[in-house]
Amino acid sequence: MGRVAVLKIGRGNFHQGFEVSLELREDGGSPLGEIEGRLKANTDIEGLYLLWQQSFRNLTAIARAPGWEIEESLATNRATSEIADDCWQRMRQVEANLNQWLQPSGELGWQKIRERLNKELASQADTIRLAIKAKDPILWKLPWHTWDLLSHYPNVGVSYSPVEYESWEIAKHQTQSDRVRLLAIFGDNRHLDLEADRKVIANLNGAQTVFCHQPQARDLIAQLRDPKGWDIFFFAGHSQTVEQRGRISLSARESIETDQFKHALKEAIQRGLKIAIFNSCEGLGLAQQLADLHVPIIIVMQEIVPDKVAQSFLKEFLREYAAGQPLYIAVRRAQERLEEFTDLPGATWLPMIYQNPSEVLPTWKDLRAMTKRNSRRQLEWQHLPNILVRSLVATGLVMAVRFLGGLQPVELWAFDQLMRLQSDRGIDERLLVVKVTEQDIRQQRQYPLSDRVILQAIEKLQVHQPRAIGLDIYRDFPVEPGYRELAAHIQKNPRLVTICEVSQPESKGGNKFGVASPPASSTENVGFSDLAVEPDGTVRRYLFHLNPGESLCQASYAFSAELAFRYLYSEGIQPEATSEGNLKLGSTVFQPLERHTGFYHNIDTRGHQVLLNYRSSQKVAREVTLTEVLQNDFPPQWVKDRLILIGVVAPSVGDRFSTPFGNEMDRKMPGVIIHAQMVSQMLSIAKEERSLLRFLPQGLDALWIWSWAITGGLCIWGFHSLLYRKIASAVAIVILPNLCFGLFSIGICAPLVPSALAFAIAWGITNRFSSLSH
Question: What is the pTM of this model?
């Protein structure tokens, strides 16, 4: 797999040093990590480079004279020989100074950067390239390919770009040809021999080339706008950079800056232009301006270049590139072969690649028709089965971890977030909660409350004809005064439901366990108060039926269920049992949770449990205090035909539980309020006002997760550009939770966290193999 090492040289200067960082990334993929550091000051290198530049330009000027050769034996050429010697000396000084500057130093961060880069080069010498991102243009001109760290790795290419170099999308359209489309512009040829360049391009295998000799500006623009598109734009002739602006000479009479044909260039880029080659002098300004137009790859000569150097580079580069070498390797090999020009010391410094490090450099084969016709689909459709396989692997990994309970904590957290996001349904008009507060307990000066006080409250409520009253206060032993009177009332009032607690045996012995119901209560008027509490103390499940076994509490239905049944009986709705033994109310079957259901794994599945869908996080029913009831200080219509729940809410009693809405003390919900939530849920389901919250069947659950794994793979398969891949992934990640919430609001608990994880794994796997295939 290709990898890019991006060396960013940011703020600073040669006198104070530079801030630097090394970023590693997969070719065309996301960053893998970054190391920050600082590069020490170097006050000599800029001056040394300028001295070399002057000597080289002097030699170049002489080289353009007809018949020039360096021959030390001829007195007439002694001056030339001295300039060449001086140029050699300056070249060696620049290279030596550069290597000394980049050696390990007291700057700890730079030491780490050098060591990490050395490690990457050693492990991936044939697949890594180095990108220099710098603010100061002189840094681009330095001969980085002579760095001693790269000397043992001939396949490591070097490219350049500014620090603020935005990512762009590769062309939306592709050239319509089964060969590489190349537009070759030959401009002003005064004192130049461009015939050699023309022959090299004309002999390219697999290329369809259009030659334009000294075109007018409008002809150049018209060619760039050819609807068939171009893969490569080539220019040979005179060019120059003045104040960081590039200009090419089309003829002796006409020259043009890139700004003057930028719209035509943009059209060419949209139609598939990938590479621009300027085999001309001083191309750095051209490179910078073309980069602003988002030309993916620009190859230029940074200084004045003699004909023979330009011709040699083009010939060697195109030979290597068309033979299948990666672009950066082809450039480096052509660059190194320029050392044969011993009369021009530093000729190997001239060619440079200017590009965005996040782009994947195309090979010659990539530019051929099989990567263009029908866009990339002819090539990519064959990879679709691999994407399906990788998505299955991702799904299998996620399902295995989920089955072992590894995702349960985070899935419970996600469930809580969805519960919080639901709209608050407000109070249930069918319920009234009589709450025993701290003030009520202080006023009665007794706790547990006496049987007389409880009886008085029940009688005050009974006068207004409620459908049923639920007493969520244990009365398994007398609390005088008033025990006999309360017992007598319990025996004769079929609308009064009391509680007991089934609990669980603490040992396997024969001892009874649990909390008994009031002795006077008949079994059919008692409901158990047990709640299904998660290991984290949160109530997310509704336990409505169980087998009490040997418990002191022999109730088989929950306290809340018994109250709901009494209300529904008056509505003509009676509980039924299906052939599987499941509860059915109206048209809804209460399918119980199993040991492995949804995000639950290895849970206590005793009895029949379903997910508890809270009606409200604030107030599920109207509330009055015990004192208000005893003083008849409440509207009678709040009681008539309602279900009444009487329970203690005083924090000192401790009957409080965490819910999806919070586990802080002030947000914990009293037991009687949770029972009211359960009653409201059962009534709403039976009356078809709400759906029972349930998980998808296991098979459909796995299919849902797999579909998101496939989506993760398709985000890579469908887009070449890292930017578009990220956009597609972001859209998918936004859709997933919103879709899950939409399903949640209609009673379907879809797997959110496993789907997101499968998406991420499939995205990563496919991205890795996609980069490898390139």
Answer: 0.56
